[in-house]
Write a structure and sequence with these properties.
With 139 residues, the protein is an alpha+beta fold. 44% of the residues lie in helices and 15% in strands. A hairpin with a 2-residue loop joins strand 2 and strand 3.
């Protein structure tokens, strides 16, 4: 039996067992609702967790925290049961492998980086620290 998990929405959880899909509201406490929801559906279908032979999880786009919940549960089930988790991205038209490159800017415009990677990371961390300190002052 295939288990499908979609926690990409900030409002709901979608769980599939083979071809059947089920939804539950989860505006809050998504991490506390997913496992009991899966357990409830397995019981309704008179299935056991051991009947799961494959897992498909939506990896995005969507709510970052929600996606982490779904992927973590899927990976845990996969590891415990020794079954594949395909992690297929169900978004239509998504680029399979994407990355940033400044090569075109270098070639065309003669662009050069102002910072090394290490310097850029330090500046980024410094900026975020300052930003959040300012945010905390206004709370």
């Amino acid at each position: 039996m295939k288990l499908y998990i979609d926690t990409s929405s900030s409002d709901k959880i979608v769980v599939g067992l083979d071809q059947d899909k089920f939804e539950t509201q989860s505006r809050q406490d998504k991490s506390q609702k997913l496992l009991p929801f899966i357990d409830e559906l397995l019981k309704k279908k008179k299935k056991k967790i051991e009947d799961i032979t494959e897992i498909e999880v939506n990896t995005g786009p969507g709510s970052f925290t929600g996606l982490r919940v779904g992927v973590s549960v899927a990976n845990t089930f996969g590891w415990v049961l020794g079954i594949p988790v395909n992690g297929k991205n169900i978004a239509k038209g998504e680029i399979k492998h994407q990355f940033l490159s400044a090569q075109k800017a270098r070639d065309t415009l003669g662009w050069k980086s102002k910072y090394t990677l290490e310097e850029g990371l330090k500046e980024t961390v410094k900026w975020y620290k300052t930003f959040f300190e300012e945010q905390n002052k206004h709370e």
